[in-house]
Structures are given as C-alpha cells and as structure tokens.
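Subject: Protein record for review, amino acid sequence with backbone structure tokens
Concerning: The relation between a protein's sequence and the shape of its backbone.
How to read it: Take the token row as a discrete description of the fold.
Enclosed: The protein record, placed directly beneath this head.
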Amino acid sequence: MSDIPPDETPSDLALVQASQGGDLEAFNQLVMIHQSAISSVLFRFSSQTADLEDLVQETFIRAWRGLGTWRPDKPFAHWLKRIAVRVGLEFFRKHKRSPMSCLASDGHDRLTALSVESLTPASDEAAQILSHLPPDQRSLLTLLQLEEMPLAEIAGHLGISLANAKIKAFRARRTLRKILTSHGYSTTF
C-alpha cells in the first residue's frame, strides 16, 4: 500500500515530482489546478483584486522555491494552503489590516466571495470592533470563525502546537469579549 494520503491525487504527485525536477510546465499545471482554492483562502486577507492577485502570486512563488520541503506523505493542497495563510498573515502585519477590512469596502473593489448587497451597517460595525484586536488575534479568529477551520488545521497553518492554538483562541475570544462589552454588547460565546 502506498503512503500517499487518500485525498492526494496521483496527478498532483506526478506534477509535483516533475516540478521538483525543474519542469515549469508541470508547475504551471499545479497553479491552474489550485489557483481557485488558494484565491478563496486569500480572499479573507484582501478582497482588492490587485492585492489578492499579488498574494496568490506570492504563494505560488514561495511554493516553487520550497518544493523540496514538500513531503509526498502529506496532501499537496494542505501544504499549499499553509503557505497561503502565512502569506496572508504577513500581509496583515505589513499593512496592519483587519481580516474584516473587505467588509468595510466602499464597493469599488471587485468582490468575488461577498456581494456588495450583503454589506450592512452591522458588518461595518463588526469591522470596526474587530479592528481593535491585535493582528494575530484577528487572523486567528478569522480562520476559526469565518473560514471555519478546525483549530488543529489552524495550528498547522500557523506552525504552532494545537495547545498553543487553543490558548491563542481563548485569549482572542477573551479580548473580543472585553471589546464587545466596552461597546455595550452582552456576550454569551
């Protein structure tokens, strides 16, 4: 029996191995296969088309450079998403942006995952409240609540232990609870 995970497609494995050998066309095929999924992950970090395209491109550049670190016993898509999350987190830190900043958009950006009609005063208020959180806590809550990622997967993406992810999530929720209370909201989560 092979040690390839069940969700790893043989075409991904063959394409990655060819790419590791320097085959640019094979890597281009990997980009075409995974670009949509990576764009979806990175949309939470920026909904502005130019920034989103830059983040996706940076993810694939880092993937190309790091192909030697990918292990065939792990899903390629998971490895690629982990790179994307790190690129997105660096973008947050660099631009001091809120993960909810796409909700506060004035509508001039092309939103692919959210419709402009869904923007409400409540989402503007949510963005304002979340902007009070430190970037690392905003990022973690975004992955946990908006992306609905399990803590184990978040820990893997962030390169921390599950216990550390649980502690960070607890602290982020506690901080958010204090912010909500100071804004007059009752909290029950």
About this structure: The chain has eight helices and no strands. Helices lie at 10-20, 24-43, 49-65, 76-95, 121-130, 135-146, 151-158, 162-182.
